[in-house]
Amino acid sequence: MSVVHYASPISADVPQPVSRRVVWSVSIFCAIVGVVCTMLILFLYFGAHRGFASVLARIVPVPAAVVDGRVVWYSEVSERANALERISGVPSGEAMHRALLLSERYAVVKNLSDELRVTPEPFHAGESSLPPLYQAVLRRESRLEAAVFLSERLQSASRSKIEAIQLKLQQGIGFADLATEYSEGDAAVFGGDIGYVNPSMLPEELQTTAKTLAAGETSSIVETPYGFWLAKAEDVIESEGEERLILLRVIEIKKDLLGDVVDAELRRVRVREFLR
């Protein structure tokens, strides 16, 4: 009995048709590559931040810079550039350049906030009279910057200075001599002498202290938003029906300004920019 072998209806030499799934996959891949290339050209070469580029930046995460390991996203830079251009009226290219610098500085502030373990106070609607777009850019940043600036760890060096001066006072060194040598205020050249003053003329935090000082008495350390103070009443004039006048000497140690701290950090850390 003979066996009949039937040939396969599809020969191995005949090319197989490409399935629709493969075609669609290749098409989608090419489209994605095209969008990404367009996006990179718009973002990294032209620095575009309006219209289609602005919408695209919110959808696709693209790094604009890396500051000490923290990524600055293009969407952040675009948001700031739009705010600067709309509020300040600066040209588009300049707005993008400024926005990148601001974004890098804010990245440093965020790194500092993580290191110092500080959190900003919440922003309440209606607190600012700025336009809504500008509020959206600034509300989170100004609160975080304030929290970092006022943190005890950031200002520990300034506090240590005033505490060292207070110790010297307790050891018997003259207030005027210490004011001349260490005070960072304008009155240092006069031994800290600011003349006769009404307490209401002083920073708010110093007013209560000045109202209670007796002649010859030195205050404890007083902290204001921008510095640390020691005050000594050389003379007090009080008369019925008139405001109290104090001949006051002060020693002022200023807090480290956040801008100076950020500048120093930007010089220290590695910054990589991808924008043209």
Could you explain how this protein is built, in words?
Residues 125-137 have low confidence and may be disordered. It contains 9 helices and 7 strands; from the N terminus they run ααββαααααβαβββαβ. It has 276 residues and is of the alpha+beta class. The strands form 2 sheets. It has a 4-stranded antiparallel sheet, sandwiched between helices. A hairpin with a 2-residue loop joins strand 4 and strand 5 (227-237). 50% of the residues lie in helices and 15% in strands. The protein has 2 domains: 41-152, no CATH class; 156-256, Chitinase A, domain 3 (Roll), CATH 3.10.50.40. Helix 4 (92-116) packs parallel to helix 5 and helix 4 packs across helix 9 (258-268). The radius of gyration is 32 Å and the shape is elongated. It starts with 19 loop residues before the first helix and ends with a strand.
